[in-house]
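for ur thesis appendix - Polysaccharide deacetylase family protein. copy paste whatever u need, i formatted it the way the template wanted (i think)
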Amino acid sequence: MTTSRPLRTAALAALPAAALAAVHCAPVVSTFGPLRNRTMPRLSGRGRADHVALTFDDGPDPLSTPFFLRLLDRRGVRATFFLLGSEAHRSPGVVREIAAAGHEIGVHGWRHRPLLLRGPRATYDDFARARDTVADITGTPPTLFRPPYGVMSTAAHVSARRLGLTPVLWTCWGEDWTARATPQSVHRTVTADLDGGGTILLHDSDCTSAPGAWRSALGALPRILDTCAERGYEVGPIRDHGWPGLATAPDVHPAGAGAPGSSGR
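the 3d part is after this line
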């Protein structure tokens, strides 16, 4: 009896922490693509049925990103680039090239680290730093956000809302980050799940991928665009995806204003 009472006390004391952890991690269910695509169309990047949103993650990269920009320019296509704040800070000239070419810019966080390992304050600071860095370079605050690895947390949802950022994932990807990826495999993987209103995820940088993996995405891109045209889909950025209110940046808190408390750092 005397032994079990301390155990019960310890278990009861652990309940609030366990409950908070469960709440923090609950949005991770959106990582499961088939479930997300069926039940969370906005988060999945679902748009108008005759349009496909083309998106790129992990840039900018001064070596690889210009190749994508030149190809897209030749094809007359605009896309959405989700930039890492740390990479944007390192290569501001490439960020300006992306913006000058008419592409849409969102943020992918400051560094490519899992959000489940961050508390509310650290999450907010990461998003704010990335958002403000891109805004300083381009003169326009971004309004879109994509979490690293596509994994959201409750703190991420709250921070994005406070900063005027809309989270957007994807409906199909090319698995172009692996060393075994080829242009053929990327095209095949993307188009297997491609339909009208969908959002494509590719990578214009290998900073979190196998070295040189971006070449597979670049090699697949012309065939992906051709397939979209054959199926009657217009290809463009998320801002043209038929979502009201995304064309204009909303009023947002200045960095640091309205930030959540520091208890989760």
